[in-house]
Design brief:
Number of helices: 0
Helix content: under 10%
Order of helices and strands: EEEEEE
Pfam family, one: TerD
Shape: globular
Radius of gyration: 14 Å
Family: Belongs to the CAPAB/TerDEXZ family.
Strand content: 35-45%
Strand order of the largest sheet: 1-5-4
Distance between the termini: 35 Å
Domain TerD: 4-96
Number of domains: 1
CATH architecture: Sandwich
Structural class: mainly beta
CATH superfamily: sav2460 like domains
Largest sheet: 3 strands, antiparallel
Organism: Streptomyces beijiangensis
CATH class: Mainly Beta
Protein name: TerD family protein
Length: 107
């Protein structure tokens, strides 16, 4: 996958006209050691995840179709990355939207 790079601020949304997406988050762990986890959600027309299979995260890194996957985290110079890849063009027509999110265990 190649294409544009778009830096996003916390809480922002970006509509994309693309057939495939590779979303990468890069962060530098602070002294508290908190980690970041990527997730992908396949949403139906009602804006909800259709089933547990449509929630891709660290314990379920691939959708059964293989069209959505969370790659292993990587150590990079000065930080870490977490990546989600989605083949939008081949998703089931009942998938209305895909949402990529990141969370931290920080309280």
């Amino acid at each position: 996958m190649t294409g544009m790079t778009h830096a996003m601020l916390k809480g922002s949304n970006v509509p994309l006209e693309a057939t495939a997406v590779r979303a990468v988050i890069r962060w530098t762990p602070g002294p508290d050691g908190h980690d970041v986890d990527a997730s992908a959600l396949l949403l139906g027309a009602d804006g909800r995840v259709r089933s547990d299979e449509d929630f891709i995260f660290y314990n379920q890194p691939r959708h059964p179709s293989g069209l959505v996957r969370r790659l292993p985290k990587k150590l990079v110079a000065g930080g870490r990355t977490d990546t989600v890849e989605v083949d939008l063009a081949r998703l089931d027509p009942s998938v209305d939207a895909e949402s990529t999110t990141w969370s931290t265990d920080r309280e």
